[in-house]
Amino acid sequence: MENFYRSIGGLGSTALTLDRPGIEVENVRLLERFYHWQNKNLTESSLPPAGTLYLTPTHLIFVNPAEKRETWVLLSHIGTVERSSILPAGCPLVIRCKTFLSLVFIISKDRDCHEVYSALLRIAQPSTFEELYCFSYNPGEGNFERSAGWNTFDIQFEYQRIGVPNRHWTLTKMNQNYDICDSYPQYLYVPTCASQKVLLGSAGFRSRGRLPVLSYLHPSTNAAICRCSQPLSGFSARCEEDEQMLACILRATPSSRTVWIIDTRPRLNAMANRATGKGYETEQNYVGMKVQFFSIENIHVMRSALNKLVEVSDLKAGSDDLNVPSHSIFLDGLQATGWLKHIRAILDASVFVAEKIVEGDSVVVHCSDGWDRTSQTCALACLLLDPYYRTIHGFMALIEKDWLSFGHKFSERAGHLRPFYTGGGNSPAVTPSSAVSMVMDTTREQSPVFTQFLDCVWQLLVQKPYAFQFNERFLLVLHDHLYSCQFGTLIGNNEKERKELRLEERTYSLWGFMKRHLTEYINPLYDAERCRNMDILVPDIAPQQLRLWVMMYNRFEEGIHPREPLLSALTILKDHSSSLEDHLQLLEKRISLLKEAYKQHALMSAAGPVANGLSHSPHGSFSSAGSASDLSRAAVITDSVALDWKAVRDVSFCICSTPFSQFSMKYHCWRCGDVVCRRCTEMHAPLEGLYSNKPVPVCQLCYDRLRINGSKKAFLPSVKS
Ligand SMILES: [Zn+2]
Ligand SMILES: [Zn+2]
């Protein structure tokens, strides 16, 4: 796990601003496996060598000089900090990250442990937006521009793409100043036949003013996915405008026999809401509508399920006497979390929505406030229906639409800000040294809603790998940055809040960052052609088809992941073969030119001894076939492309001496075939031996050598931003 954060996104050294005082503690030991530390007989001699723990304004860094290892943890990733009772060897400090990394430090002095503990509680979760990492993050010179990625998505283009405005759907500017609904975007698409009175009336009858609006329009059936919040119906209240609003949606879909109202909540929850003046639609009042409940549980149930899942994962290595729990203990534990049941419920609702749309019926999706379960369901249904959303660019557009534009409480759900101390500078009371503290985990609003969305996408990716342009790494990087607060993209709860924070001017965009590393996210099994002829992607949600996402929840457990995942091996193979094909093309071209030159030479020799065969190729000229300069050029050509690429399997260091962790991508230099890190292939250069003449990845060594040899061809950095 060393250097992990460096390797996933430059979260490392550039962030170190030592102008602010940090904390430095010596004689600290990092325990790799969880079970060591609970052993009461633990003595100093049985511990790993001691190192130094640093706390900077942005990172916790542990340096172990004996093993030449550095462990970097971004402070925004820290979920809980816990002190345990003192052992003979020192004071244990347990840190759990939102990215499912758990670390146990043994700090020899109790006073030091206390200092680190209270500092972490103070700074890991800031109390104001201004303190978030994105406002101080600077990728450093020569990296990407601040504007990169911010103008990638204009949500209006997305509506144009799905064909609105049109005869049935129109743009309304009534929320231009966020007066009707402050968690909705400024511009909304609604049925053309809905009058201003109907829109206002419906907004007034919906929780937080979130009236039914268009989220997606199917290109061939013209059926619509609309989204909203629950009606304020209580036990018997009615609203004529709201009933008309849904009737307008039915009228805007000529093919629709009925409009399905998808209440994603379990029926019991929806009924319980009636007691508080909210609830669900009564079918008798809404003519032509059908209400269908699904059983996606609320944020509190989901949070508790994830906490249990983390416990079960710890269980794998957490018992005192055994290294691993028995099979049945683990499976029973997993069953008790209910996690896969919840994933299934979300997929179930999404598949239902997608199927109704293909059949030509419009749907209106809601939950309580319409920003958690509704976002999950609408986004997943779109993903099943439209192959565009399964491309890298399209998936970003989908997040922009159903999560950012329509509002999702990222600040609370991801716990970006400390909930109970907002505005104030007070730190939480520090508990006595022997007590266990879980201060940050007790927030009522935190919930893995977006994590579940990514999990559902992963289930689809595993079942239908050909349908996705992106790979698992893409989803994991997104998840890391949901919590990192490094970029402004996923900060804030709605469009209005983001504008007020002026994120575009003051922070960098996650999309800009990810677009620089696109090659890492390409799924080699993607088959765009095959997707084009498909109406809908239907996953199998039978219980035996849903799996635990080990790469997400157990990502940091060493030794359980394949050393060389199949798909990255496939990516390397594809790159290598395209390099060889390019080379082959050049060689074939040369052979035919040489043959031609030889023929001419033979003809001219027959005609007279003074004639000389000259020929020109698009890749430089050569003199008469077989001359000395021609032979040396042939050598240059064959030497400039690596025929063999070094196997990545046992390479643990790059030539620049950066260690490869289990999460690092490994690249090849196309010239020498060596295995290098990402930073070492930033430079691209055209090679003499390639027909295409396009700049390809080369290592720093080869790059310098090419430059010394004075090639006049252009040298380009890998990314144009
Ligand atoms: Zn090289
Ligand atoms: Zn390197």
Automatic annotation (TrEMBL):
Keyword Repressor: no
Start and end residues of each FYVE-type domain: 655-707
GO biological process terms on file: phosphatidylinositol dephosphorylation
PROSITE patterns: PPASE_MYOTUBULARIN, TYR_PHOSPHATASE_1, ZF_FYVE
Residues engaged in binding substrate: N298, I299, C367, S368, D369, G370, W371, D372, R373
Keyword terms, alphabetized: Hydrolase, Lipid metabolism, Membrane, Metal-binding, Zinc, Zinc-finger
Domain Myotubularin phosphatase: 149-553
InterPro entries: Myotubularin (IPR030564), Myotubularin-like_Pase_dom (IPR010569), PH-GRAM_MTMR6-9 (IPR048994), PH-like_dom_sf (IPR011993), Prot-tyrosine_phosphatase-like (IPR029021), Tyr_Pase_AS (IPR016130), Tyr_Pase_cat (IPR003595), Znf_FYVE (IPR000306)
PANTHER family xref list: MYOTUBULARIN-RELATED (PTHR10807), PHOSPHATIDYLINOSITOL-3-PHOSPHATE PHOSPHATASE (PTHR10807:SF8)
Family, as annotated: Belongs to the protein-tyrosine phosphatase family. Non-receptor class myotubularin subfamily.
Protein's UniProt name: phosphatidylinositol-3,5-bisphosphate 3-phosphatase
Upper classification of the organism: Eukaryota, Metazoa, Ecdysozoa, Tardigrada, Eutardigrada
